[in-house]
Amino acid sequence: MSDQPTSFSAPKGTRDILPPESWRRLRVVDVAREIFGRAGYAPVETPVFEHTEIFERGVGEATEVVSKQMYTFTDSAGRSLTLRPEATAGLVRAVLENRLDKGPLPIKLMYWGPMFRQERPQKGRYREFAQIDIEVMGSDLPAVDAEVIELGARFLAACGVDCTLLLNSIGHLDDSCRLGYLATLVAYLRAHEGELAVEDRARIDANPLRTFDSKEAPTIEVMRGAPAITDHLCTSCAEHFASVRALLDDVGVDYVIEPKLVRGLDYYTRTAFEFVSDALGAQSTVLGGGRYDGLAEVLGGSHLPAIGFALGVDRLLLASKELEEWSPRLVDVYVVAVGFRAARASLALVTELRRAGIGADFDLMGRGMKAQMKGADRSRARWAAIVGDDELDAGEVTLRDMGSGDQERIAGDQLLDRVRTKES
């Protein structure tokens, strides 16, 4: 075994989240909890890995996520398990297993946590990535679609993200709706097969809708002339889509109809939507979702209409003007100790402030006063409470306003009241 020290780094496609970004990520979660919680959504947690079949059946074996991007392993009992590449299939499994679908409806859930996909790392896209979801299960009313989309729009606005909402309906899986459209689409693709990128030709039989997601220039050009699914919706789906649009108009959410928006997972039905931003360079999706009315049945449950969305926290932060430079102010008072006696007394003073609900910090490296004042500045404290031998002997504290530089000497027992008064 080598005695040479080994240098380790984070695996490709992963990274360490450090301050100040770590604070910004927590801020995103706080905004989500506030907005979605006030709309009746309850937090839920599920395992970071599930039985592989959950994703094969729920997401679709022909999707790129399942066929190419999943981290799958076999446990000691020979079971195939997969780190979740997305949250919805696992959430539906949890709802069915815990019989939430047998209780009061609708079920309104919110969720945040890490997802895992083995894809090519690029700006704002990692192999381990944080995601926030909301889901509503149990209702197929258009008002549910409109609520979910409006909440997404409000959340993005609260985070300072300038987006465009793309909206579509991909209908239901029956002969009079999407299946009929797929036959028309396949006929179109067959007629233009020689013009498609080679890697997209296999999708004609396996998953023709995925040709709309192609990044290959020849395929993109062919798909410009493809038939629109909105022209092939059944009466029920067309009326549902019209109602969703009318409700979005009622609540002032602007949208652009995009007939070629199909989303990348097989479980979607009817409403599909994406919020896209130019802040990441080329127009990129920040938040996306749609209906998945048949997913519960695919996973062995009863019919449970549902809709939800997911947003990637990394991409959100890249697109956010509001959060770009945001960092919290958590320390109100930074205690600066000058001399051995004051250094010994500083922990008691900091503890008193903290127990009174005031954010407080102090030097733990034995630095001089100048370095401690730099520490106070780095902490973004409002005030520095300076304590030296003179202050200790007099039972006083010098309180400096870190913004203006003004300072005053006050009795030590007045510090709490003075800080509280200045805060208000």
Report on the architecture of this protein.
It is built from 16 helices and 16 strands. The longest helix is centred in the first third of the chain and has 17 residues, at 21-37. The chain has helices at 21-37, 52-60, 64-69, 88-97, 142-158, 178-191, 198-201, 203-206, 217-223, 235-250, 295-298, 313-319, 340-355, 369-378, 389-394, 415-423, and strands spanning 42-43, 49-51, 71-74, 80-83, 107-116, 128-137, 164-169, 256-257, 269-277, 284-291, 306-312, 333-337, 360-362, 383-387, 396-401, 407-411. The chain starts with 20 loop residues before the first helix and ends with a helix. The chain has an eight-stranded mixed beta sheet. Strands 13-12-14-15-16 form a five-stranded mixed beta sheet, sandwiched between helices. The chain has a three-stranded antiparallel beta sheet with strand order 2-4-3. The model has no long low-confidence stretch (mean pLDDT 92). It folds into three domains: 21-172 and 233-319, BirA Bifunctional Protein, domain 2 (2-Layer Sandwich), CATH 3.30.930.10; 178-229, no CATH class; 333-423, Anticodon-binding domain (Rossmann fold), CATH 3.40.50.800. With 424 residues, the chain is α+β, with helices and mostly antiparallel strands.
